[in-house]
Amino acid sequence: MTDKTSAALKADQMFINFGPQHPSTHGVLRIALTVEGEVVVKAAPDVGYLHRGMEKLFEARTYSQALILTDRLDYISAMHNNLAYCLAVERLAGVQVPLRAEYLRVLTAELNRIASHLVFFGTFAVDMGAFTPFLYAFREREMILDLFEMLCGGRLLYSYVRVGGVSADLPAGWTEKCREFIAFFKPRLKDYDTLLSTNPIFKSRTDGVGLISAAQALSWGLSGPNLRASGPDYDVRKAEPYCVYDKLNFKVPVARTGSCWDRYYCRMLEMGQSAEIALQCLDALAAPELAPEIMTKGVPKMLKPAAGQAYAHVEASRGDLGFYAVSDGSLSPYRMHVRGPSFLNVAILQEILTGCKIADVVAILGSLDIVLGEVDR
Question: Domain range holding 209?
């Protein structure tokens, strides 16, 4: 190929900034696209616009004070952040948690998973040109937020899970209201399928689009529904059970082709499983033989773990969320690192966007369900 021919070919290419202000980026993410006509020939995700130095901030706060920072990572699914952090600190300090608190942690985590997946369902539908599912999704999500507000006073940032247990037991009338919500919510899943899942336009935009093979998913370190949609059956709740997940009966949805539709539908099925887990937790919490303690006695507010290190991870809404804590024996963590699933999930864009159409970029990015607070930390 001559230099003139090569220059002529490059002249047909165009550089497009997709974001960071574009509504379909679901946050301040910029994707640098090189396109030929409608086809993407190169994609470079550019993160860092939201970076707040969160891991460094942990070092300037006590272990109790640092809890509020975790809410602000994946702010759509803050309960899981609280839980993963507390598990790491408890492992570091050798703290045992009462059984009732363990059930309360799982109950709130699964309700938060439903609330998070509802945000995905609604916003992904908007990305694909359907607005009505957004209204359905946020109607149900508001019911969960009402429950959280009754429980801990917060609707987005909770700090409910504490080192050694939880901040409060279920208030009067909460259990009944939660059961009412689940009874209302479970039939809605069929409505969602009718409304969107089987919609021919939606399926044409997502089925067979943005394929990720099992090998690719594992190679790039994907986790959560993005990994399981490609075939690997890995869920932290099953692989390394924490809290009381080993006492509960639930299934982990797995797909095969790794398309946008598979990633979408794995989350839809997960919402049904989370509702079943929540019901099992409510039954266990109502058992008269369950001890009433919700907080381990003797955990000081100014916690001072011995020098050492610990790692704990959970199956958060967007995948494998881990906290690695290092103690030097002082009141504050010496080092803290967060393994955010969204950060790893977004990295694969540079590979899977190549060769797709510009319109498919929106579908592929939306199907990964990232939160930039967890990407940039």
Answer: 13-376
